[in-house]
Amino acid sequence: MDMGLAVAVLAAFVWGCYLFALKRYFPAYSASVIIAVVHPIAIGLYLPIAIGSMPAAGPSPLRLLLDGGVGIAVIVVSNSLAFMAFIRAITVGEISYVAPISKIVPAFVLPLELLLLGEHLTPLQLVGVALATVAVYVANFQGGAWLAPLRRAAHSRAAQFALLSAALYAVGDVGRRVTLQELAVPPQLLVVALLGGMAIVLAPQAARTWPGGVREDLPKFLVAGAVVAAGEHTTMIAFSTLPASIASPIINTQAIVAVVLGGLVLREEAFGLRLLAAALAVWGVTLIAI
Fold this sequence. Notes:
The protein has 290 residues and is an all-alpha fold. Helix content is 81%, strand content 0%. The chain has 14 helices and no strands. α6 runs antiparallel to α12 (244-251). It starts with a helix and ends with a helix.
């Protein structure tokens, strides 16, 4: 397997576990508080790796940050909003329901690459977009009329927030590809900039909603910080070596990990149907990547 593909698969597994952990271990915390606590921990754990692996030659980190400033800003803002939408989705809905919907990110990535970066949509990729759309239908199906899932998705707050999250993450994924490949920002530097930028953007909201219990849950936040550092590092490596329309579908197979864990551990309803929805989403986004 190509190294970039292998790293993307590893990122999918790491993020799938993280999605499940958010639902299982952090239901009492808002998205802004999670970011404000987890991301500084992740930076602290990752910084020695970033410093040790940064190229010695070439422009200074400050110069690279300035050159990639617009791309970094787009990634930070879109990912911050996307994470808040996703946390809202899993707060009002089950993870095995939300995950297949929120991870059809590549269905948004490809049109963005088509419009902004000159990519072309093949017939097979059109089939992939259709399958990803069908996955949303299946995730909403509870029997009865054929149009019932569409009506449920249209009126479900969980589905609406999940779709919003997917669209915003797509903007961030295209931004990653441009920032890493066209603007030549090193992956290690972008990880630190993204984690720090999101923490800064959401800090005011976190301060307004700061709950009790953070100190007691610090061990869980430490583990989450390590997972986020690993997830961001592998994600950046994947996007620095692969087109966004290939890296994004692979990484978003994290939906299957989250659905399986949600069904087996949390005993969520309609596990089989939602596993099918996740599989259809992955099949669809794989065709998009071909």
